[in-house]
Structures are given as C-alpha cells and as structure tokens.
Design a protein that fits this description.
The protein contains 7 helices and 4 strands. The chain has a 4-stranded mixed beta sheet, sandwiched between helices. It has 2 domains: 88 residues; 116 residues, no CATH class. Helix 1 packs across helix 3 and helix 2 runs antiparallel to helix 3. It is elongated and about 70 Å long. The N and C termini lie far apart (64 Å). The N terminus and C terminus are likely disordered. By secondary structure, it is an alpha+beta fold. Strand 2 and strand 3 form a beta hairpin.
C-alpha cells in the first residue's frame, strides 16, 4: 500500500502545481477570480446549512453543502480560466489551430493547409460533420483563400459537406472562444468509415501535390532543372 501511495504522490503534486499555475495565470486577466470562487463555494455551503437547520439535519447537509460548493467552485474556475486563456490567445497567429488541436476525439485537424504572403491562414478539420475550413487573418483576404480551398475540396470529396468559419470579432465572424462550440453544433452526417475515407483522400491529395512531376513538353525559357542527388 505504501508503494502505491508513494507512486501516486508525484502525480498528485503535479496536478496541484498545474492548478496553482492555472490560477495564477487566470488571476492576471480575471482580478476577481478569488472573490468569485469564494462567493460561489461559501454561498452554496450557506444555502445547504440553512436548509439543514430548517429540516433538523445541519451536519449532514453541511457536509453535502461543502462538497457541492467545492464542485461548483471548480466548475466556475474552469470556465473563467478558459475564458481568460481565450482572451490571451485572441488575435494571436495560430490561435485557431491551438483550439482545433484540443477540440476532442473524432476530429482530425491539419493546420495551415492554405496561406498567403500576409500570413492569413486556413486550417482544416475533418469529422462526422464533414470538412470544416477555419480561417484566421484579414476577413477580406481570407475569403479568397477559403473559396480556393473549398473549390479544391469539391473536386476531391464532392460528396462531403464543407463548412467554413472565419475567426474574429467582426460581423459574420466567430469568436475564438466560440469556435469549438460552433463546430460541435454542425449536424453529424458522416459515419466513422466515411470520415476515414475522407481523410485518406485528402492525405492522398496532399501527397500528390508534393510529389507532382514536372510537366511534359518543352521547358520554358529561363527554367532550370533541379539538381538531383550526387552519385
């Protein structure tokens, strides 16, 4: 038993350290986080105690109130920590890709499938809802990137629905903190095998583009042949 407890100690210590670090990071953005959590926990406990005295069981309901209060505070902490994290990420390059990487099981994400010189970028996620193209950058510029990528998708997987999302705070855009919720709201129209097939076809398309041979026929003037490996 002692060995099992000692083996679990590092994991528990690491978890507590992570919670403390998350709290410190959240407090930098959300100054009232401590007061809010205390209010939620103590408020829940107070309600249970009042009910306990009314029904004649203050001890039992006090213990229950303590546990429920801790649970309620943990839920509120998680939501406010997530909101603070999104607030820090908002507007940062690659923020949408980070959200897609943590969207959950059943989704396969490929970052930066399209990009322009201004570093506007389109990411791709494939799941039972079909294909979701997520763009971040200038709203006017990314529209052309999305249109070109949707056209490419229609040629390769014409039977799969393609959705597009522009991450931002402007009209018609989706806030970063709402990206995951937006994607999970899309209706599921594909089965597991269909998702696998779609991913395979998209992967094959990527490999084909990388390994595309030089066109046949006369070489344009000024064009040089690539150097092969030395033998």
């Amino acid at each position: 038993m002692a060995r099992k407890e000692n083996a679990a100690d590092p994991a528990n210590a690491g978890r507590l350290k992570q919670i403390a670090l998350t709290y410190k990071m959240t407090r930098k953005i959300d100054k009232l986080i401590g007061l809010v959590l205390a209010g939620v926990g103590l408020g829940t406990l107070a309600v249970f105690l009042v009910v306990g005295f009314l029904v004649g069981h203050p001890v039992y309901l006090g213990i229950a109130g303590l546990l429920v209060g801790l649970l309620a505070a943990a839920i509120v902490f998680g939501r406010r920590a997530e909101r603070a994290a999104f607030g820090q990420m908002e507007g940062q390059p690659g923020a949408a890709a980070a959200v897609l990487d943590n969207i959950g099981r059943g989704w396969t994400t490929t970052p930066a499938v399209a990009m322009n010189r201004s570093q506007d970028v389109v990411h791709r996620a494939v799941g039972k809802a079909g294909i979701v193209l997520v763009a971040e950058g200038n709203a006017n510029r990314v529209k052309s990137l999305l249109a070109a990528e949707k056209k490419k998708m229609n040629r390769v997987v014409a039977d799969v629905p393609v959705h597009d999302v522009i991450v931002g705070t402007g009209e018609g855009q989706t806030e970063l903190k709402k990206l995951r919720t937006t994607m999970l709201k899309y209706p599921r129209v594909l089965t597991g095998p269909q998702v696998t097939t779609t991913n395979d076809r998209l992967r094959a398309m990527g490999d084909l583009m990388k390994n595309m041979p030089l066109p046949k026929g006369p070489m344009p003037k000024g064009m040089r042949m690539p150097k092969g490996p030395n033998r």
